[in-house]
Specification:
mainly alpha, about 110 residues, about 0% strand, about 80% helix, 4 helices
Amino acid sequence: MNGTWKDWSNAGLGVWLGASPWLLGAGAFPHPLITYVCVPVGILLLAGGVGAAARPSGWTERLVVVLGLWLLVAPATWTYRVPAVSWDNIAIGLVVLTLAFWRLRDLVRGDMVR
């Protein structure tokens, strides 16, 4: 399981996203909605990154694209009350989308350099 740095970066961002509500001061009790969004998406992002590292395929990158888009939309949809978490979700969403589209391009071109 070698994966590219792009896959492992997405997995690491998933870990950060899952922990970010507590690290950015929006823990589970005062703002449960933030936790309900960040933790499951972080777990799915971690799974998508590890899955893409283990077996490169288009479906894992497409999953990561959907998660990245959701991270861009979630702060506005759920009106987060903690600006740091909103900006964190948007930043992670942009990075995740960039890495996923880059990786999809590599897969389409057949460029499987690790």
